[in-house]
Amino acid sequence: MDGLLQFPVATPPVPGAVVPIAPGILWLRMKLPFALDHINLWLLEDGPSWTAVDTGFALPETRAAWHEIFAAELGGRPIGRVIVTHYHPDHIGLAGWLTEHWQAPLWTTEKEWLHARMMSREGDEDAARLRRDFAHRAGLDDEASTIFAERQGGYRRGVPSVPPSYHRIGEGTRIQIGGREWRVIIGEGHAPEHACLYCAEAGVLIAGDQILPRISPNISVQAHEPDGDPLARYLTSLDKLRRALPSDILVLPSHNLPFRGVHTRIDELAAHHHARCAEVIAACERPLSAADLMPVLFKRRLDRHQTGFALGEALAHLHYLVGQREIARATGDDGVDRFLRRAA
Q: Where are the alpha helices (H) located in the chain, listed in sequence order?
């Protein structure tokens, strides 16, 4: 899929080290405890200090890697600001620790901060019941629904604390970092108000998870918004980014390698989701639940972590197609939503 993309640096940094990826920009990589086993983070030179973009999942190894970077790679300068692209644990996980360590402010969007605060405080039976009911409505049996509820409730494992205050950024916010202007472009679908950072002078986009070179970002319906249509928002965001960005910029994604060819990749991602939608329409010649559709959309064996993502992805495509009036939804006497292709 990425044959037309260019990858200027083939070897990523090891945890605790950095690679200069563009003038004034350092590339860091930290471990993750999942099948997707890494996240890319960024340090931007900012005069007498550094601006960090994203923080990593709260693991002892991640804190240790940060301490190595503090000692060896900052040139005696502090981290003066922490920007977080979105609320997912691999991005905001150590924001509380990092901002407290450096007495530095957190900069992020309002919805991402609010979601992080909400998710980090969940843990009561009401939240678990909400997730079980969501999974049952999507077609999982009782045992699988309980497993889903327990896995989805593990947010605080990766995000032990969220800063109690933040500096709000949003669509069009212009941030001065090291004498250069970075403009915030908001993406939706993967997260509610995901901040991408674009510097025209440097020819760089810090894309977070909104545009990835080798995998599609997870686009999922969430238990707290069970009738949501995140895929419609994601496709609209892709179109906005394509119009806003020149084709030759260097994209710094949160996973895999930095690359060039952003228009090509945006087109591939949109085509991927439209192809998935065609698979869903073809499968829904008889009523199917989201759980029924998971083997159609995901041919490989899924672990528990991946199963949660897969269920949300299946629902995202189903809800999008309901909105496009390609399929219809009906709730059965068993409380499960099933979807059927509309007659031509």
A: 60-72, 89-92, 95-102, 110-121, 125-137, 142-152, 155-158, 230-244, 262-283, 290-297, 304-323
Q: Residue 123 pLDDT > 80, yes or no?
A: no
Pick the closest to residue 162 from 224, 100, 109 (CA basis): 100
Ramachandran quadrant class, 189 (left: phi over 0; alpha: psi -120 to 50; beta: rest):
left
The overall pTM is greater than 0.85: yes
CATH of 19-120+151-285, one of 3.40.50.300, 3.60.15.10, 3.30.750.24, 3.50.50.60: 3.60.15.10
**pLDDT tens readout for residues 256-295:** 999 999 999 999 999 999 999 999 999 999 999 999 999 9
Q: In the chain, what are the domain boundaries?
A: 19-120+151-285
Instruction: Give the pair of three-digit tokens for residue 84.
Output: 């977080």
Token readout for 228 is: 């949501």
Positive/negative CA dihedral, 72, 77, 79, 85: negative
Q: Which pLDDT score, from 0 to 100, does residue 1 have?
A: 43
